[in-house]
Every structure is written in structure tokens, then in C-alpha cells.
Amino acid sequence: MRELLSQRARGVKRSEIRELLKLTEQPGIISFAGGLPDPETFPTQEFAQAAQQVIQQDYHKSLQYGATEGDKRFRQAVIDWLTQEGLPLRLDEIIATSAAQQGLDLICKVFLDPGDLVYCDLPTYLGAIQAFTAYQAEKIGIPMEEDGMNLEVLKSKLEEARRADKRPKLVYIVPNFQNPSGITLSEAKRKELVEIAQQYNLLIMEDDPYGWLRYEDRPIPSLKSLDKYGRVILLVSFSKLLCPGLRLGILAASPDVLSEIVKLKQPTDLCTPSFTQSLAYHYLRAHDFHERIEHLKRIYKEKRDAMLEALEEYMPRHPEIHWTRPQGGFFVWMTLPEYIDSTELLRRALSAQVAFVTGSAFFVDGSGKNTLRLSFAEQKPEVIREGMCRLGQTIEEAIATRVT
Ligand code: PMP
Questions:
Q1: Are strands 249-252 and 94-97 parallel, antiparallel or unpaired?
Q2: What is the pLDDT of residue 16?
Q3: Pocket test for ligand 1, best of 42, 108, 121, 125 (most atoms within 8 A of CB)
Q4: Does ligand 1 have an atom closer than 6 angstroms to the CB of 238?
């Protein structure tokens, strides 16, 4: 069978981490590994009511095939919400997607040929790396600073590509509380990045599943709202704001980009499930979504605060140990002394009944062996404290024995 595989399938490797992640799900282990939202926040009662309407009154739409662009009622409800949030869009500027991951895949499908260059943060979201690999793009990692991607390095890499006659196409950005680092791209850099895209004829993929979950300070304008050239494609997901099981999001772009995306969405799935779009529409019509997001922010802020306090308390004092302090989202990113390999550390941590995700998987250049990601979203504050205590001890032992 192997000889029948496409070049594309051959290029994608199985993830070793997946195997380790299976171990993190064993009973008794406090896991900070998965980036999943807290299921206790899912709006079950509200969905139960909405589902009645969806099935009994709305079945001619909700159980039928729908337009590839998505259900107009759902899209209009999303536009109404985004307008309230300061991001006015028109109906012909958004389509429904089967959550952000499909949007990401479709953008790659429409714009990338094998060998095209894609620029992303070091580290960046694993699902994006997988999509770039599947479409056989060349992935160029750009180091991050406290305020996001180092744009000087980006520009020098773009110049390098120009000299080598290569094809830079796309910059991929998770602008708010990035997965995995928790870092937010500053407003000044957002503005500059849009100008760079214009100067070098690039598209920007703005993947923003966490932006609404901000626990302090003011929101920063999205790249999409700063873009006067039509170069930004924005992905919004309902996975963290409602629940991932809906598999629902929207993709916002200029109408000409959207028409290309719609063409290649048809062979993917014909349309995003009418059922979940209908459910979300009835939900959004009947409830104050802004209020729901405020509720989510209160819950996740408490968890974030619990993790940051416990890190202060339990992590060994060491000049090479540091972590990010995200203003929102789900993730804290930790850097350890160079000589600690976080894959080896994870084996030790699992014996101590605590788990995280090793950092190197998020680096397209194979670096980051001494880094790890902690998600605070799933666990209760008191469990987070206990988990951090176990992790602190594990790291202390690793330092004492200089695990390499
Ligand atoms: N982008 C980022 C940055 C993510 O963290 C995730 C999921 N954790 C996704 C996209 C995919 O999410 P979904 O397809 O559920 O919207």
C-alpha cells in the first residue's frame, strides 16, 4: 500500500507526542497537556432548548444540505455579534467553516503549491504546522519576542527568499494569547505586519480562537480591522466560546478570496453541517453572547491566576527557568535550563502523576527541547495548585540530577 501513497501523505510523520499524550489521560494524572475547554462551561441547557427548535420547527433547513457559504441566518447572527465587538463585516465577507481548523486547511489548499514559503512563529500551533506540511509548503520559523513575532527577522527572511527566487505566500499568526506561548502580538507590530504583507505581496492568516477570552487590559484591534489592502484572512472559532463539538467557525476575507475558498470547500464537505449552524443560530438569537463570554472570562481568569500563583510558589528559583504571564486564553509557556529535555522530563512527571505537552513539537526548526506548554483551562483551581506542586518537585529533581 505504501507505494500508492501520495507525496503529501508520505511527508506527514506520526507524532511521537500523541503516544505520550495517551499516557497523560490515565486516571490519577493531573494533566495540563490538552488544550481543551472546560466541559462544565458548555451551555447544555440552552442547547437542549435550541435543539428542540432545530429539529421540530427548523428541520427543512437544519437537516438538509445547505449553501457552501453557510446558513445566512447563522452568518448574520455572527455579523451582529462581531459588529457589537467592534468588527463590522458584510455578509459577502464571511463564510461558515467546520471550525478554524477547516479554515486553516482550506487557505492552504487554495494558496499553497509545494515548495511555497510559509512564515510562522517559533513556536506555533501544531495543527497549523500539520496543514503546512500536508500541503508541502516550506515552513520558515520566526523567533518570538515578548510582543510577538520578531518582524526584523521576518523581513530579513523575506529578503533572503527574494534573492533565492523563492515564493513567499503566507504569514500565519495567532495574534492573541497564542497557542502555545500565551504571547500577544502588539498593536504596533500588527500595523507593521500588514504593511509588510503589502510590500512583499503576502497574505496573512489571522487565527484568533482565544482573542475574546481576555482577562485584563483592553483588546487590541485585529489585523483584519487594520488591513486596508484585503490581505488578511481571519478565522474565528466557536470551539472555545461555545464548544468544540459543534465544529463551527467563520472565515472572513475579501469577496474574491472567499469565492476561491468556496470553490475548494465544495469537494471537501459540500457545506458545514446545517444542523450545528442552525443550533448556533437559535442559541445566538435567544441569548446574550456577550454575557456568556463575560462568564467564561471569570471562570478562566480564576484558573489562570491559580496557575500563575502556584508557579511562583512551587517552581524552583533558577536563572534559566521562566514562564509567560498570558493576559488571556488557555496557555502558559515555560522555558527550562538548556540541559533539560522536556520529553525526558515528561516521563518523570508522569511518574509523579502530572502531565504537560513538550515544547519541541511546536517548533518548525526542531528547536525548543527545553520548553513545555501548560494549559490551565481544564482543571479546577485547587487541582492546578496540586499539579504545579508536583511539577515543581519534578523539575527540582531534574535539575539536581542534570537530566539531559
Ligand atoms: N487554531 C488554534 C491556534 C488553536 O489553538 C486551535 C485548537 N486548539 C485551532 C486553531 C483549531 O480549533 P477549531 O478547529 O476547534 O476551531
A1: antiparallel
A2: 62
A3: 125
A4: no
Q: Please tell me the distance from the alpha carbon of residue 153 to that of residue 148, in angstroms, as a whole number.
A: 12
> What is the rounded CA–CA span in Å between residue 245 and residue 227?
32
Residue identified by cell 472570562 is 297
Nearest Cα residue to 380 out of 113, 12, 33, 31: 31
- Can you list the residues of the chain whose pLDDT is less than 50? 403-404
Ligand 1 centroid from CA 100, angstroms: 6
Label residues 388-397 b or e (16+ Cβ within 10 Å = b).
bbbbbbbbee
Tell me how far apart the alpha carbons of residues 30 and 378 are, in angstroms, rounded to a whole number.
10
Give the residue from 335, 297, 295 showing the smallest Cα distance to 315. 335
Assess whether the C-beta atom of 289 lies below 6 angstroms from ligand 1. Answer: no
CA–CA gap between residue 379 and residue 300 (Å, rounded): 10
Hey, which of 78, 124, 172, 179 would you mutate to test ligand 1's pocket, going by the most ligand atoms within 8 Å of its Cβ? Answer: 179
DSSP string spanning 5-55? Answer: S-HHHHHPPPPHHHHHHHHHTSTT-EE----PPPGGGS-HHHHHHHHHHHH
Please tell me if the CB atom of residue 394 comes closer than 6 angstroms to any atom of ligand 1: no
Quote the CA–CA distance of 223 and 285 in Å, as a whole number: 28
What are the helix (H) ranges across 240-316?
255-269, 274-286, 289-314
For the CA of 98, the closest atom of ligand 1 is: 14
Q: Report how far residue 197's alpha carbon sits from residue 200's, in angstroms, rounded to the nearest whole number.
A: 5
- Our answer on whether the CB atom of 148 is closer than 6 Å to any ligand 1 atom is no
The pLDDT value given to residue 15:
66
| Predicted TM-score (pTM) above 0.90 | yes
Torsion of CA 179, 184, 190, 196, to 10 degrees: -50
CA atoms within a 13 Å half-sphere pointing along the CA-CB vector of 382: 0
Q: How far is the CA of 9 from the centre of ligand 1 (A)?
A: 22
3-state class (DSSP) for residue 69? coil
Supply the pLDDT for residue 106: 98
β-sheet bridge partners, residue 237:
249
The CB of 211 under 6 Å from ligand 1? The reply is no
Pairwise CA distance, residues 71 & 275, whole Å? 10
List of residues 6+ apart from 236 with CB closer than 8 A: 78, 82, 100, 208, 209, 249, 250, 252
